[in-house]
Amino acid sequence: MSCDAWFRDAITREGRWELDQIVYRSDAGNLLEVTHDLDALRAQHDADGWRALWDQRYRRAPYPLQSGVWGKKELVLPGIPDEHVVSLGEGATPLVHTGRYGEQLGLDELYLKQCGTTHTGSFKDLGMTVLVSQVNHIVKSSDSGILGVACASTGDTSAALAAYCAAAGLPSVVLLPYAKISPAQLIQPIANGALTLALDTDFDGCMRLIQQLTEDRKLYLANSMNSLRVEGQKTVGIEIIQQLDWNVPDWVLIPGGNLGNVSALYKGFEELLALGVIKRMPRVVCCQAEAANPLYRAYQNDWAFEAITAGPTQASAIRIGDPVSLPKAVAALQKHGGMVEQASEQELADECALADRCGQFTCPHTGVALAALRKLVTAGTIRKHERVVVVSTAHGLKFSNVKADYHGDGIAGIEAHHANRPVRLDATRDAVYDAVMRHIDTTLA
Hints:
Elements: E1 5-9, E2 32-36, H1 38-44, H2 47-57, E3 95-97, H3 100-105, E4 109-114, H4 124-141, E5 148-152, H5 156-168, E6 172-177, H6 183-191, E7 195-199, H7 203-213, E8 219-221, H8 228-233, H9 235-243, E9 251-255, H10 260-274, E10 283-289, H11 294-300, H12 326-336, E11 339-343, H13 345-356, H14 364-378, E12 387-392, H15 400-407, H16 429-444
Parallel strand pairs: 4-12, 5-6, 5-8, 6-7, 9-10, 9-12, 10-11
Antiparallel strand pairs: 1-2, 3-4
Helix pairs in contact: 4-5, 5-6, 9-10, 10-12, 13-14
């Protein structure tokens, strides 16, 4: 069943390191990527064979293969024993046709890939199951000296790390920027027993510290600069194709902060292309908040990158001014004609509200991608007949405080154009009836 996989330099494509080595960068200082023996995989099955195998497993195979990630095990971590896998049923998330919302945008076929319905409420589960499984395998198979797993986080990574380490019985440590993540995100690593350190800095400061903290390799680094995470996150792209009956969408839009998700999305598509499962690549748009938009600025300046200090944004999980996975993301975007767009705080707040009015419950980061989509549709870049997928990276419940502010007392500097505030009334039949009729008239107008 297994085919070989190893680390190599993600930029030069040179060098070879085994997956059980504790290494995050090449000798040249570049990030690594996991490389699969695609020739061996092509010999194992043709394109129809891979489609049939993955469809057969989808959401119904024995543990752990019913997971949306581990159902693609040969293309994720082929060599790890099933008993060392740490899975919490991640992935296999809905691809939802948006109906009324897509119609209002002027699109015939718009889907939301609802990654927030996975175990800890964000797409970060997809990468963390792979990373923690590999650490679990290393610890159980060798005298590695690994004492625990650590990450810097804007919220969702810490939640995923804490949950998967708790399931594996591994100590976890998370570094968070103090008062810059949502209460729902903060309680997740606390509840799962992680050492939760709230630091007086931003995410970029936490990221610098976590790299120093993991230098002696006693703590295993769990941030997206570790390419094991990418192997799980790339299954979002594979799963989108599978859920479209192995057809390729014209466009995929995804929020971007540290940019590991962008390179992961491309990697999944590229490997499907190499196996003959698909015949073309979709166009990918990385979407950034205007307050944290270093990649968008680089895109507008012929890819000349300069780190920034990210400002406050409702999309707190992508409040990153110096993304670690920038080189891999830029290389993939350049290679495949990808784009970068941004959204202001006003635009993302209103777009969340509009999508929610059509039955969604979107996180602010998804609001960034939806607002970027509206711009591209308005500009004529994305056309009515094209099939579009927006990756929703987290569940809206993780950011209910932001929604409550929008619909309640308000968010500083934001006009709540679509606020829906509770109405306090006397407890009488006439008062309630009149309010109901006004609501129905307004809704159906």
